[in-house]
Amino acid sequence: MQKYTLLVALLMISSLSFAQRAQPIFATEKDSVLYLGLMEALNKTHGIFERQKRDSLMNVRDEIWTRSFLGYRYNYVPNQTYYQYEDLKNGELDPLSVTTLSIADYKGEDLPDEIYACKNLKELELVNTSIKRISKKLNTLKDLWYVSILNNEISGSQLILKKNKHITYLKIRSNTTGELPKNYKPFKALDSLDLIRNLITEFPKINRNKNLHQLTLSENSLTLEHDKIKKNKSLTNLIMRQNKIKTVPGNLGKFKNLEKLNLSYNHITNMDDAVGNLSALKELSLYNNRLEEIPKAIFSLKNLTTIDLYFNKIKIVPNEIGNLSKLEILYLSNNTLYILPERIGELKNLRELYIHHNQLSYFPETIGELTSLQVIRFNNNDFMTLPNQIFELKNLQNIDFSRNKLNQLSEDVFEYPHLKLLAMVENPWSDKDEIKLLASKLREKGVTVHLDSYSTPLDDVNK
Question: Which of 76, 158, 249, 329 has the greatest number of C-beta atoms within 10 Å?
């Protein structure tokens, strides 16, 4: 289906220096025109008497966005820390001094001949070009390891990669999926493939890249529903943040050596049991999805050390969590949990437990068996008293029980020999002077105590 660009006010993109502005892309011209009209109408509605009209327009706008939005068209500019091709072409640079090179707005089908004189070139960037093929002549540049291709437009054909045995990192940003290479096999040494923001709807062919370790597919339109994913024995890190995945398919289980899998910011509600075949997996992120329960496949991943389940709709953690004996960090915050399982005490290697912003009011007896625990955050819950078991966790360094319903605090908090930070903001203390005195004594021991309002810790944001 032909795609059209909606001509609206450009959005500044600050996270990456080379991506300056972005335009939304919709599935049809009709939706683009309608969306533009709605935005113009919204900009003209002001004041309390137009609130109802504004709400109605916003509802239609959001419906179009949900139904038809495909992604953004990004505009790129050259990396100003690189040497520029125009200076090389004009003889202002000694080719042997060039280690980084940016070629911008070049309309030739092949790379310019001047670059092959840059025998010490290590990093090459193509910006707003029309290159049809990456020539095998690049093999003469033996130090070249990094190639970045930003908005290379070759309408009606796909970029052709010729054999290369030196390039280990390939980055491509394209505004049209059809111009991406058919496969990446010719780049024999490829270690990292970065395909962020390419409007990709189909998992790329990487089964013949025997040295590929990292594949980044974030901010695309992947669903994985009908993709024929073939195994790759070398892949260890797969990142698919911010796509349109609803179900994690079993064919991801073919990546037997995968150690890190990031599926944050998708629409995931379930996971195929075959994902449990990822026996080497150590880190799994399902941050900000739509899970109502923890998928059973996860409890088969016996080598997991980190699970991120922030911002889902999970109500219960089943006892099977005890199967994950190597777990070190467990993120369960911002769900709807009201209970933790007894077998949580079997997580003997757990160092950090994040369960804040839930509906918990008590801990199971076994919480005291988490002897390796250093960080526990259960702020923004419904605890009325602190269970005695928590005082058995002598290795705790960082504790946050702010914004609960606590009215008393035991002096057992003095018995944590390694305590560095204690946050207990906004609890309905029955004797506030007593709590202030206790906080003062802890500070005298070198503990940082938050008793008044404080900012969210940095390790709880930008995950």
Answer: 76
